[in-house]
Amino acid sequence: MSKHIFITGGVVSSLGKGLTSASIGMLLESHGLSVRMQKLDPYLNVDPGTMSPYQHGEVYVLDDGSETDLDLGHYERFTQSPLSRNSSWTTGRIYLNVIDRERRGEYQGKTVQVVPHVTDEIKRAIRSLDSEDVDVVISEIGGTVGDIESLPFLEAIRQLSLNIGKENCLYIHLTLIPYLKAARELKTKPTQHSVGQLREIGIQPDILVCRTEQDISRDEIEKIASFCNVPVTHVIEEKDCEFSIYEVPVMLSRHELDRRILDRLQLKPRKEADLSRWFDIIQRLKEPEHQVNIAVVGKYAKHKDAYKSIYESLDHAGIKNKAKIRIERIPSDLLESKESLDLLKKVDGILIPGGFGERGVEGKIKAVRIARENKIPFFGICLGMQCAVIEFARHVAHLEGANSTEFDNETPHPVISLLPEQYAVKDIGGTMRLGAQPTHLSEGTNSIRWYGTPDISERHRHRYEFNGDYLETLGNAGLCIAGKNPERLLVEVIELSSHPWFVGVQFHPEFKSQPTSPHPLFDGFINAAIQRSQHQ
Ligand code: GLN
Question: In the structure, what pLDDT confidence band is assigned to residue 304 with cuts at 50, 70 and 90?
Answer without folding.
Answer: confident
